[in-house]
Amino acid sequence: MKPDTKFDKPGKSPFMDMDLIPKYADEEGEKNDHGIRIDPTQVQNLGLKTEKVIKGQLNYSQTIPANVSFNEYQFVIVQARSDGFVEKVYPLTIGDKVKKGTPLIDITIPEWVEAQSEYLLLSSTNGSATQLKGVLERLRLAGMPENDIQRLRSSRSIQTRFTITAPIDGVITAFDLRTGMNISKDKVVAQIQGMDPVWISAAVPESIAYLLKNTSQFEISVPAYPDKTFNVEKWTLLPGVDQTTRTLQVRLQVSNKDEQLKPGMNAYLKVNTRSQDMLLIPSQAVIDTGSEQRVITVDKDGRFVPKIIKVLHESQQQAGIGAGLSEGDSVVVSGLFLIDSEANITGALERMRHAENVASAHSGH
């Protein structure tokens, strides 16, 4: 407990009721410069266990909170694009689901009526094809629906009332017109948001970003439907890192044909992936001091040798090692703190650091 305090004779420790342990001069010889020896009986009593360093892939599996949101690629704003009057509002409101072609409002647009009259007049007075085409293009730019333009060409009659319809399947997220209102060309008739597919977003640790390769690595679950699985169609890793949490946003596009997934729902993203081949040891073999990471190895002569290592990743009680060990090395996985303390007391770890520093200095010349 007090490695810097030494006594010249045996007896009881003044710090606790324990016998002092003798240390002999020959224990500090060259033979022990890179490790310590422990009596085999004591090793057995301590239940020390070792495992071999192996080479393999680190399996990474983690469940991360996620949330469901609208697919922003399926968002439309419906406008009349010309001044007019609202003749009828169909019984719809925010939150209603609509199909493509569902009527939203009936309107009268004087500008459209005037352009139709010009088109029919040119048609009856042998106007040129360019003139007729120009009038039709003006109607399109003014917002007149294509179906009504084609009806004008075929029926040769003026239409005064037009129906604005939903351009996509989805949910109405804005709709506040009333029958009898004036409507300006920049007034929003409705906002419609598609529901299939939806997006599911989650924050993943930046340290595993390089492991994400394809959609098969992702599993989606939703508390509302615990027995249902959802098909991930595509995914993307958004640019930018949250500097507080050190996470990246991953966005998954998920099929939602039955529209069970509702924007705002909680979801869970399970990430299953594997690293490239690397050296693996049990996580409990790693001693992390805050300033360095190390393990206790057993050499061919049975000495316990502390080694400084570099841990790349940890998952499922395994640690991936980037430096400090070789395949086949034996590392202590239980009782290692007792050995580590002994290594520090006898100075084995400090001698090892000194040897590494000397080697580094020579390699630099």
Secondary-structure blueprint:
Layout: H1 40-46, E1 49-52, E2 54-69, E3 75-79, E4 84-89, E5 97-98, E6 103-108, H2 110-124, H3 129-141, H4 146-155, E7 162-165, E8 170-174, E9 182-183, E10 188-193, E11 198-205, E12 218-221, E13 232-242, E14 247-254, E15 266-282, E16 287-288, E17 293-298, E18 304-315, E19 318-323, E20 330-334, H5 336-346, H6 348-363
Antiparallel strand pairs: 1-20, 2-11, 2-15, 3-10, 4-6, 4-9, 5-8, 6-7, 8-10, 11-14, 12-15, 13-14, 15-19, 16-17, 17-18, 17-20, 18-19
Your description of this structure?
GO terms for molecular function: transition metal ion binding; transmembrane transporter activity. Belongs to the membrane fusion protein (MFP) (TC 8.A.1) family. About 20% of the residues are buried. The protein has four domains: about 40-55 and about 275-355, conserved putative lor/sdh protein from methanococcus maripaludis s2 fold (Beta Barrel), CATH 2.40.420; about 60-70 and about 195-275, Elongation Factor Tu (Ef-tu), domain 3, CATH 2.40.30; about 80-110 and about 165-195, OB fold (Dihydrolipoamide Acetyltransferase, E2P) (Beta Barrel), CATH 2.40.50.100; about 110-160, no CATH class. The chain contains six helices and 20 strands. The strands form three sheets. Strands 1, 2, 11, 12, 13, 14, 15, 16, 17, 18, 19 and 20 form a twelve-stranded antiparallel β-sheet that branches. A four-stranded antiparallel β-sheet has the order 3-10-8-5, with no helix packed on it. It has about 375 residues and is α+β, with helices and mostly antiparallel strands. Helix 2 (about 110-125) runs antiparallel to helix 3.
